[in-house]
Protein backbone atom coordinates (compact mmCIF):
# COMPACT_ATOMS: atom_id res chain seq x y z
CA UNK A 1 0.00 0.00 0.00
CA UNK A 2 1.45 3.38 -1.04
CA UNK A 3 1.05 6.37 1.23
CA UNK A 4 1.05 10.10 0.57
CA UNK A 5 4.52 10.89 1.87
CA UNK A 6 4.32 14.62 1.10
CA UNK A 7 1.23 15.08 3.28
CA UNK A 8 3.07 13.61 6.27
CA UNK A 9 6.07 15.91 6.02
CA UNK A 10 4.67 18.72 8.13
CA UNK A 11 3.87 16.37 10.99
CA UNK A 12 7.55 15.83 11.82
CA UNK A 13 9.21 18.86 13.47
CA UNK A 14 12.60 18.22 11.91
CA UNK A 15 13.96 19.05 8.46
CA UNK A 16 16.09 15.93 8.28
CA UNK A 17 15.78 12.88 10.50
CA UNK A 18 18.27 10.12 11.11
CA UNK A 19 15.98 7.15 10.68
CA UNK A 20 16.11 3.70 12.24
CA UNK A 21 14.14 1.49 9.87
CA UNK A 22 12.12 -1.28 11.55
CA UNK A 23 10.38 -4.16 9.73
CA UNK A 24 8.75 -7.36 10.98
CA UNK A 25 7.08 -10.50 9.66
CA UNK A 26 5.35 -12.95 11.93
CA UNK A 27 6.10 -16.38 10.43
CA UNK A 28 9.26 -18.30 9.67
CA UNK A 29 8.02 -18.95 6.14
CA UNK A 30 7.60 -15.22 5.51
CA UNK A 31 11.09 -14.63 6.90
CA UNK A 32 12.62 -17.33 4.65
CA UNK A 33 10.84 -16.21 1.51
CA UNK A 34 11.11 -12.49 2.20
CA UNK A 35 7.33 -12.07 1.99
CA UNK A 36 6.54 -8.63 3.36
CA UNK A 37 10.05 -7.70 4.48
CA UNK A 38 11.23 -6.18 1.23
CA UNK A 39 7.88 -4.47 0.63
CA UNK A 40 8.14 -2.82 4.04
CA UNK A 41 11.74 -1.77 3.43
CA UNK A 42 10.89 -0.33 0.01
CA UNK A 43 8.03 1.72 1.43
CA UNK A 44 10.16 3.14 4.23
CA UNK A 45 12.96 4.04 1.82
CA UNK A 46 10.59 5.77 -0.57
CA UNK A 47 9.22 7.80 2.32
CA UNK A 48 12.72 8.74 3.53
CA UNK A 49 13.79 9.82 0.06
CA UNK A 50 10.62 11.82 -0.57
CA UNK A 51 10.98 13.69 2.72
CA UNK A 52 14.74 14.25 2.83
CA UNK A 53 15.44 11.90 5.72
CA UNK A 54 18.43 9.57 6.04
CA UNK A 55 18.22 5.90 7.01
CA UNK A 56 21.15 5.28 9.35
CA UNK A 57 20.28 1.79 10.60
CA UNK A 58 17.99 -1.09 9.67
CA UNK A 59 16.43 -3.56 12.10
CA UNK A 60 14.20 -6.56 11.54
CA UNK A 61 12.37 -9.20 13.54
CA UNK A 62 11.95 -12.13 11.18
CA UNK A 63 9.44 -14.82 12.05
CA UNK A 64 8.52 -13.07 15.31
CA UNK A 65 4.89 -12.63 16.33
CA UNK A 66 3.66 -9.14 17.12
CA UNK A 67 2.22 -10.58 20.33
CA UNK A 68 5.74 -11.06 21.69
CA UNK A 69 6.98 -8.38 24.04
CA UNK A 70 9.95 -6.15 23.32
CA UNK A 71 12.31 -8.44 25.28
CA UNK A 72 11.73 -11.21 22.73
CA UNK A 73 12.19 -8.94 19.71
CA UNK A 74 15.85 -8.15 19.25
CA UNK A 75 15.34 -5.92 16.22
CA UNK A 76 12.88 -3.63 17.98
CA UNK A 77 15.01 -3.61 21.13
CA UNK A 78 18.06 -2.54 19.09
CA UNK A 79 16.08 0.16 17.27
CA UNK A 80 15.05 1.71 20.58
CA UNK A 81 18.62 1.33 21.85
CA UNK A 82 19.76 3.41 18.85
CA UNK A 83 17.44 6.20 20.01
CA UNK A 84 18.81 6.02 23.54
CA UNK A 85 22.39 6.13 22.24
CA UNK A 86 21.59 9.22 20.17
CA UNK A 87 22.54 7.58 16.87
CA UNK A 88 19.00 7.87 15.47
CA UNK A 89 16.20 10.40 15.81
CA UNK A 90 13.22 8.26 14.82
CA UNK A 91 11.99 4.70 14.42
CA UNK A 92 9.98 4.32 11.22
CA UNK A 93 7.69 1.38 10.42
CA UNK A 94 4.94 0.77 7.88
CA UNK A 95 2.06 0.43 10.34
CA UNK A 96 1.38 0.19 14.06
CA UNK A 97 0.66 -3.53 13.82
CA UNK A 98 4.33 -4.02 12.93
CA UNK A 99 5.02 -2.82 16.48
CA UNK A 100 2.42 -4.95 18.25
CA UNK A 101 -0.75 -6.93 17.75
CA UNK A 102 -2.31 -5.91 21.05
CA UNK A 103 -3.19 -2.33 21.88
CA UNK A 104 -1.67 -2.55 25.37
CA UNK A 105 1.67 -3.73 23.95
CA UNK A 106 1.52 -1.06 21.25
CA UNK A 107 1.15 1.63 23.90
CA UNK A 108 4.02 0.22 25.93
CA UNK A 109 6.37 0.19 22.93
CA UNK A 110 5.40 3.73 21.91
CA UNK A 111 6.12 4.78 25.48
CA UNK A 112 9.59 3.23 25.22
CA UNK A 113 10.28 5.17 22.01
CA UNK A 114 9.16 8.46 23.50
CA UNK A 115 11.04 7.84 26.75
CA UNK A 116 14.19 7.33 24.67
CA UNK A 117 13.66 10.80 23.19
CA UNK A 118 12.71 9.41 19.82
CA UNK A 119 10.01 10.00 17.24
CA UNK A 120 7.68 7.18 16.17
CA UNK A 121 6.60 7.29 12.52
CA UNK A 122 3.93 4.92 11.19
CA UNK A 123 3.52 5.33 7.44
CA UNK A 124 0.12 3.66 7.35
CA UNK A 125 -1.29 5.70 10.23
CA UNK A 126 -0.76 9.27 9.12
CA UNK A 127 2.95 9.72 9.78
CA UNK A 128 4.31 10.72 13.16
CA UNK A 129 2.56 9.10 16.12
CA UNK A 130 2.38 12.12 18.40
CA UNK A 131 3.30 11.74 22.04
CA UNK A 132 0.52 11.97 24.61
CA UNK A 133 -0.45 15.51 25.60
CA UNK A 134 -2.37 16.13 28.85
CA UNK A 135 -4.01 19.14 27.18
CA UNK A 136 -5.25 16.97 24.30
CA UNK A 137 -6.70 13.74 25.74
CA UNK A 138 -8.55 13.05 22.47
CA UNK A 139 -5.19 12.41 20.77
CA UNK A 140 -4.50 9.46 23.06
CA UNK A 141 -8.09 8.22 22.98
CA UNK A 142 -8.28 8.18 19.18
CA UNK A 143 -4.96 6.32 18.83
CA UNK A 144 -5.98 3.76 21.42
CA UNK A 145 -9.42 3.28 19.86
CA UNK A 146 -7.79 2.60 16.51
CA UNK A 147 -5.61 0.02 18.24
CA UNK A 148 -8.62 -1.59 19.91
CA UNK A 149 -10.57 -1.86 16.64
CA UNK A 150 -7.53 -3.24 14.81
CA UNK A 151 -7.15 -5.87 17.56
CA UNK A 152 -10.89 -6.64 17.31
CA UNK A 153 -10.64 -7.09 13.54
CA UNK A 154 -7.76 -9.54 13.91
CA UNK A 155 -9.72 -11.42 16.56
CA UNK A 156 -12.76 -11.69 14.29
CA UNK A 157 -10.60 -13.00 11.44
CA UNK A 158 -9.12 -15.67 13.71
CA UNK A 159 -12.63 -16.56 14.90
CA UNK A 160 -13.89 -17.02 11.32
CA UNK A 161 -10.87 -19.15 10.44
CA UNK A 162 -11.34 -21.30 13.54
CA UNK A 163 -15.04 -21.83 12.82
CA UNK A 164 -14.24 -22.64 9.21
CA UNK A 165 -11.76 -25.29 10.30
CA UNK A 166 -14.24 -26.72 12.79
CA UNK A 167 -16.91 -26.98 10.09
CA UNK A 168 -14.48 -28.60 7.68
CA UNK A 169 -13.32 -31.07 10.33
CA UNK A 170 -16.96 -31.96 11.11
CA UNK A 171 -17.39 -32.86 7.45
CA UNK A 172 -14.27 -35.01 7.54
CA UNK A 173 -12.07 -32.46 5.78
CA UNK A 174 -8.38 -31.79 6.28
CA UNK A 175 -7.77 -28.77 8.51
CA UNK A 176 -4.00 -28.72 8.69
CA UNK A 177 -1.35 -30.32 10.85
CA UNK A 178 0.84 -33.27 10.00
CA UNK A 179 -0.87 -35.45 7.35
CA UNK A 180 -1.22 -39.15 8.23
CA UNK A 181 1.31 -41.55 6.74
CA UNK A 182 0.31 -42.29 3.16
CA UNK A 183 -0.92 -38.77 2.43
CA UNK A 184 0.38 -35.24 1.99
CA UNK A 185 -1.31 -31.87 2.07
CA UNK A 186 -2.28 -30.36 -1.27
CA UNK A 187 -4.58 -27.46 -2.17
CA UNK A 188 -6.20 -27.49 1.26
CA UNK A 189 -6.91 -31.21 1.23
CA UNK A 190 -5.16 -34.55 1.64
CA UNK A 191 -3.86 -36.31 -1.44
CA UNK A 192 -2.30 -39.80 -1.58
CA UNK A 193 1.48 -40.00 -1.57
CA UNK A 194 2.34 -42.80 -4.05
CA UNK A 195 5.54 -43.92 -2.31
CA UNK A 196 4.03 -43.92 1.17
CA UNK A 197 0.89 -45.66 -0.08
CA UNK A 198 3.09 -48.57 -1.18
CA UNK A 199 4.42 -48.84 2.38
CA UNK A 200 0.90 -48.63 3.83
CA UNK A 201 -0.23 -51.47 1.55
CA UNK A 202 2.76 -53.54 2.69
CA UNK A 203 1.90 -52.94 6.37
CA UNK A 204 -1.73 -53.99 5.83
CA UNK A 205 -0.67 -57.11 3.93
CA UNK A 206 1.73 -58.14 6.72
CA UNK A 207 -1.03 -57.54 9.29
CA UNK A 208 -3.42 -59.76 7.33
CA UNK A 209 -0.74 -62.46 7.39
CA UNK A 210 -0.92 -62.38 11.19
CA UNK A 211 2.36 -60.58 11.83
CA UNK A 212 2.81 -58.77 15.15
CA UNK A 213 3.55 -55.05 15.22
CA UNK A 214 7.22 -55.61 16.06
CA UNK A 215 7.50 -58.25 13.35
CA UNK A 216 6.02 -55.80 10.83
CA UNK A 217 8.58 -53.19 11.89
CA UNK A 218 11.41 -55.69 11.39
CA UNK A 219 10.21 -56.40 7.85
CA UNK A 220 9.88 -52.68 7.05
CA UNK A 221 13.44 -52.05 8.27
CA UNK A 222 14.79 -55.01 6.31
CA UNK A 223 13.10 -53.74 3.15
CA UNK A 224 14.32 -50.19 3.67
CA UNK A 225 10.96 -48.56 4.33
CA UNK A 226 11.44 -45.58 6.65
CA UNK A 227 8.84 -43.84 8.76
CA UNK A 228 8.28 -40.09 8.43
CA UNK A 229 10.65 -39.44 11.30
CA UNK A 230 13.08 -42.19 10.39
CA UNK A 231 12.21 -44.85 12.94
CA UNK A 232 9.06 -46.95 13.13
CA UNK A 233 7.21 -47.30 16.42
CA UNK A 234 4.52 -49.89 17.26
CA UNK A 235 1.95 -47.15 17.95
CA UNK A 236 2.46 -45.55 14.52
CA UNK A 237 2.11 -48.93 12.78
CA UNK A 238 -0.99 -49.71 14.85
CA UNK A 239 -2.47 -46.34 13.85
CA UNK A 240 -2.02 -47.15 10.15
CA UNK A 241 -3.64 -50.57 10.63
CA UNK A 242 -6.51 -49.07 12.63
CA UNK A 243 -7.26 -46.58 9.85
CA UNK A 244 -7.05 -49.38 7.30
CA UNK A 245 -5.02 -47.11 5.04
CA UNK A 246 -7.69 -44.39 5.05
CA UNK A 247 -6.77 -40.73 5.54
CA UNK A 248 -9.14 -40.39 8.51
Q: Could you characterize what this model shows?
A:
This protein is of the alpha/beta class. It has two domains: 145 residues, 3-Layer(aba) Sandwich (Rossmann fold), CATH 3.40.50; 61 residues, no CATH class. 48% of the residues lie in helices and 14% in strands. The chain contains nine helices and seven strands; from the N terminus they run αβααβαβαββαββααα. The strands form two sheets. The chain has a five-stranded mixed sheet with strand order 2-1-3-4-5, with helices on both faces. Strands 6-7 form a two-stranded antiparallel sheet. The longest helix is centred in the middle third of the chain and has 34 residues. The radius of gyration is 26 Å and the shape is elongated. The chain starts with a helix and ends in a 5-residue tail after the last helix. The N terminus is likely disordered.
Compact overview of the structure:
The protein is an alpha/beta fold and 248 residues long.
Name the shape in a single word. Answer: elongated
Strand content: 5-15%
- What is the ordering of alpha helices and beta strands? HEHHEHEHEEHEEHHH
Could you list the spans in which at least 5 consecutive residues all have pLDDT below 50?
1-11
CA-based gyration radius = 26 Å
- Given helix and strand content, the structural type is alpha/beta
CATH architecture of the largest domain: 3-Layer(aba) Sandwich
Quick check: average pLDDT? Answer: 78
Helix-residue proportion: 40-55%
CATH domain topology of the largest domain: Rossmann fold
Report how far apart the termini are: 42 Å
Number of domains: 2
User: Can you identify the CATH class of the largest domain?
Assistant: Alpha Beta
The CATH superfamily label of the largest domain reads: Resolvase, N-terminal catalytic domain
- Strand order, largest beta sheet: 2-1-3-4-5
Number of strands: 7
Amino acid sequence: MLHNFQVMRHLIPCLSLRVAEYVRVSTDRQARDGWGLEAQRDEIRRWAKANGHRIVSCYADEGISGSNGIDAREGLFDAIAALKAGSADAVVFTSLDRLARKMTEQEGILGEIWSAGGIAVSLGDGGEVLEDDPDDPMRTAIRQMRGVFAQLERGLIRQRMRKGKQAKAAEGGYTGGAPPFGYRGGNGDLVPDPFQRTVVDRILALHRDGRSLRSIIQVLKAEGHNAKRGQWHPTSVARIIRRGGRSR
